[in-house]
Amino acid sequence: AQSVSQHNHHVILSEAASLELGCNYSYGGTVNLFWYVQYPGQHLQLLLKYFSGDPLVKGIKGFEAEFIKSKFSFNLRKPSVQWSDTAEYFCAVNGNNAGNMLTFGGGTRLMVKP
Amino acid sequence: DAMVIQNPRYQVTQFGKPVTLSCSQTLNHNVMYWYQQKSSQAPKLLFHYYDKDFNNEADTPDNFQSRRPNTSFCFLDIRSPGLGDAAMYLCATSSPGTSGARETQYFGPGTRLLVL
User: What's the pLDDT tens digit per position in A57-70?
Assistant: First the structure.
């Protein structure tokens, strides 16, 4: 079975601070990895995804994530956050042998203070 | 724009009164999912359709049923809603690539269900 762990449940940052949100997964085979963002009152939107190739993936709005296979991690980063980044961020995993199943982490609620 | 549409955005029902939530998509994706998301929690998969094939998660209560009359539409039926079923219900779609699991799920805005 696949599982995802997000260690930080709540993060509070000031504008222009750097962001790193942790994501670790558990799965024995090849994985596809995703970060979704949910802005207040809005639906889940895809930030970025990793299927294969360059382990450093760039997404929308200046976000990037790095897949480190040896650490089973896919941490999300942004060099300088903005107030508009206030949202909940979900890491998700889809194992290649898990069919269509997408397993989400518990989410990290980010608040950026202006 | 191609999208996933959920109606209504807010639904209020009474304890025990059947309710149906709807989802439609213009993406022509062959897989449709229903998730339940309670406050401050991750979305939890209830079931999905791969074309007409229904796949129920093992821990999805029998109280939850689904119908997919065609590619574009999928319904979530809650036969006897309880107070614990109050949540956001998310519909998502995907279209598996040639390698099977390499797909992105696209989410609708959700329907927030309130049970009185």
Answer: 999 999 999 999 99
